[in-house]
Amino acid sequence: MRLNDKLKAVVEAAESRKALDVVALDLANLSIVADHFVICSGGSTLQVQAIADAIMAEAGPARMEGYREARWICLDLGDVVAHVFHREVREYFDLERLWGDASRVDLVAQAAL
After folding, report:
1. What pLDDT digit, counting tens, does each position of 56-106 carry?
2. What are phi and psi of 95, to 5 degrees?
3. Residue 62 is part of a domain; what is its CATH number?
4. Considering Cα of 24, then 8, then 10, then 80, what sign does the dihedral take?
5. What distances in angstroms separate CA 92 from CA 29, 37, 66, 86, one per listed residue?
6. What is the pLDDT of residue 107?
7. pLDDT-derived band of residue 32, with 50, 70 and 90 as boundaries?
8. Which domain holds residue 96?
9. How buried is residue 26: exposed, middle or buried, by Cβ count under 10 Å (0-12/13-18/19+)?
């Protein structure tokens, strides 16, 4: 799976489970951890788990942390890391601010690829 395909699969899977405020950050020039972070949230623990399940079903196997508690599930897919938050936890950690030097990926353009 090409990187753009993986990023697109993660975003589409999250959106298919009605994830809130899906954001993709380009970290390629900022970090060796991953090329992209996808950050999204759900309104309940069940929705957070459903989003994580959909991402793994669409984008492939991932190393995963936090599934049981479903407050912040981190899915490491190699070049793409997906962060699926419960809404309040996302606001508290504010990864978008923490990685403020990263540019946002235009998800509309990615969907067209």
Report:
1. 999 988 999 999 999 999 999 999 999 999 999 999 999 999 998 999 988
2. -60, -30
3. 3.30.460.10
4. negative
5. 26, 17, 16, 10
6. 76
7. confident
8. 3-112
9. middle
